[in-house]
Amino acid sequence: MSDLGPVSPGHAADAAWLRRWRLRQDGDAITTASSILIPVRTRDGRPAMLKIAHSEEEERGVGMLAALDGHGAARVLRHDRDAVLIERATGTRDLVDMVRDGDDDAATRIVCETAAALHGASARVFAAAAPLVDLHTWFRLLFEHADRLGPFHRRGAQIADELLAAPTDPVALHGDLHHGNVLDFGDRGWLAIDPKGLVGDAAFDYANLLCNPSHERALMPGRLERQFGVVAEASGLDRERLAGWLVAWCALSSIWFTLDDDPAHAESAAAIGELALTLS
Questions:
Q1: Which residues sit opposite 86 in a β-bridge?
Q2: What number is the average pLDDT over the span 25-49?
Q3: Which of 56, 76, 251, 257 has the highest CB neighbour count under 10 A?
């Protein structure tokens, strides 16, 4: 048998990257809508993840990871066109499990600390001229579709427009920061994976956290209010601005789910946003 190990049928191009970088497959490949992930071992036995990006968004995220150079995020080991080799999380802790086991506050603070580390490394991302998408562009579908959906979405679009019209100093944003995208890297601590590669108000990066690890959890009585307080304290952000971005994010998320023909999640995202309107 080849020292490459088993490669999933139909992924000849991925096998070519394994050969090129002298990697040994170390688990089953995972296929998503935007990429293929293959756990591997490097030539010296180091655990890593080979990622083959199939979308512009994924490639942009890889560019941000490379620019961060391990500051607050997984370190890029090799990068060539649409392929990237990233250090693999091998720690045993999991933020979703922490929430399930009653450590919701601690999990929230860990994500907040990760966000602060990423934002603190913004100069590296800007200096590398990594391609980033501004928040006005990111919210374009909300602005395009809000009027046809209802009062909450129109209110979310209005709040987003007001926030964008009064910008703070921009930072490099992860864009999808939540419990599943902050992993335990053992001695390296908690690090982010899969950034979207955005730029704008730091407060935006905390909104998705408050909707996770699930909409059902976010909508539990009293949970949103408590975790909002934890985020505000841990981040030092203005509560009114943080609440505004949460409303705007929920409206945008609801639009995305609507366009993906997922009415249940569209409704629950809007429900979280309605609760967020009472926060500040």
A1: 49, 76
A2: 91
A3: 251
pLDDT in tens, 191-216: 999 999 999 999 999 999 999 999 99
Average pLDDT over residues 38-43: 95
* Per-residue exposure over 128-151, b if at least 16 CB sit within 10 Å of its own CB, e if not: eebebbebeebbeebbebbeebee
Residue ranges with strand state E in 163-241: 171-173, 182-184, 190-192, 198-200
Check residue 56 and give its pLDDT. 79
Residue ranges and CATH numbers for the domains of the chain are 12-87 (3.30.200.20), 95-276 (3.90.1200.10)
3-class state of residue 174 by DSSP: coil
Q: Is 0.90 surpassed by the pTM of this model?
A: yes
Note the Cα 207 to chain centre separation in Å.
Answer: 11
Query: How many whole angstroms separate alpha carbon 83 and alpha carbon 130?
Result: 16
Residue 10 has pLDDT above 50, yes or no: no
What's the rounded Cα separation, in Å, for the pair 60 and 65? 9
CB 217 within 8 A of CB 269: no
- Which of these is catalytic: 14, 176, 194, 205? 176
Phi/psi at 83 (5° precision) = -110, 140
94 counts as catalytic:
no
Is the bond into 263 cis (omega within 30 degrees of 0)? no
